[in-house]
Amino acid sequence: MVIHKYIIDDPEIHLPVGFKIICVDYQRGKLCLWALINEEEKEKKKITVIGVGTGQPLSDEITKFTHFITLHSYDTVLHIFIDV
């Protein structure tokens, strides 16, 4: 297993099967996801990264909460969910 960083330019990303998300945060102004992956795994799984502000609606079907991010420049909290 090795840690890889994925820049979230598109909410849908493909990770090797068996991944484990370890962090979601902003780095240099971009939303990034860090995950433990097996570099030898060829099969990929599509996930969707969803950011929701406090008090904003969220589909009942999306239940896998992963992290929250405080956007200091906007004094806002963004809650990150993963739809697998």
Unreliable runs: none
What structural class do helix, strand and pairing data support?
A: mainly beta
Oligomer: single chain
H/E element string? EEEEEEE
Percentage of helical residues?
A: under 10%
Mean pLDDT: 87
Main-sheet strand order equals: 2-5-7-6
Strand content: over 45%
- Total individual domains: 1
The total of beta strands comes to 7
Shape: globular
The largest β sheet comes out as: 4 strands, antiparallel
Number of helices: 0
For the terminal residues, how far apart are their CA atoms? 20 Å
Supply Rg: 13 Å
Provide an overview of this structure.
The protein is mainly β and 84 residues long. The protein has one domain. The protein is 0% helix and 62% strand. The chain is built from no helices and 7 strands. The protein has strands at residues 2-7, 12-16, 20-27, 30-37, 44-53, 65-71, 76-83. A 4-stranded antiparallel sheet has the order 2-5-7-6, with no helix packed on it. It is globular, with a radius of gyration of 13 Å. The chain starts with a strand and ends with a strand. The model has no long low-confidence stretch (mean pLDDT 87).
Write the layout of secondary structure elements.
Elements lengths: L1 E6 L4 E5 L3 E8 L2 E8 L6 E10 L11 E7 L4 E8 L1
Antiparallel strand pairs: 1-4, 2-5, 3-4, 5-7, 6-7
Please provide a brief summary of the model:
This protein is mainly beta and 84 residues long. The chain is built from no helices and seven strands.
Annotation keywords:
84 residues; mainly beta; three-stranded antiparallel sheet; 0% helix
